[in-house]
Write the structure tokens for this entry.
Amino acid sequence: MKKILFLYFLFSALTACKNEGNKDRNNKRKKDDTKSVPFKKQLSISSKSPVTETAPPDQNQANSIETLDADLMLFNGKVKRFFSLKDFKNNFGEPDSTKLMKQEEPCAYVFQNLDPAKNLQYKFLYKNGSRFENSDEKVAVDEFKFTKKNFILYKGMIFNASTTIAQLKEIFPYSVENIGTMNVYGEGELQMIQLREGDYELYDGHINIFLKNGKLFFMQWWLPC
């Protein structure tokens, strides 16, 4: 009887030790798993491709690029950037040539339509080196060349082919200070400054101003794809 009781207690002791060992291993595994969670989170974050977004310059800061408000421009002292096809003919005459925009495959349209089929009918109107976008009876300036007759009236100032970089610097000092160059098809390398066309919350494009031989040459609206 004593031998049986001894064996029973021995078996119970061994079983308890085994259970305790399993418990310790489980607790250790849980601790290890708990430690690994932050590492996995950090890995998943760092494994993403970094995306950097450059904040638009603050117009209240001294080093902010300036605005050339399209709503205040008068092309040849008569029409704003957006006008009718009738106004185009009255102020610029008949176009020198036209081309369907789909042939040029522009990155973006001024008169973007949710129906892609309608975009296919949009045209570019060309006149004296300038380019206009045309949708039905609507027209918008896309590129404007400062010829002997072409000019812009802006806040009482006249911008024309005689406007120098020094005169532009008086109005847009920071933009001129950050002037760059761009290789323009058919023209070679031209000096270029960038201006905003309005509030960043309303406009996501900008205006490129090109100069040739230190004088105003042409301007272009740029829109992101």
Confidence is low (pLDDT under 50) at residues 27-62. The first strand starts at residue 73 and ends at 75. The chain has two domains: 1-48, 70-222.
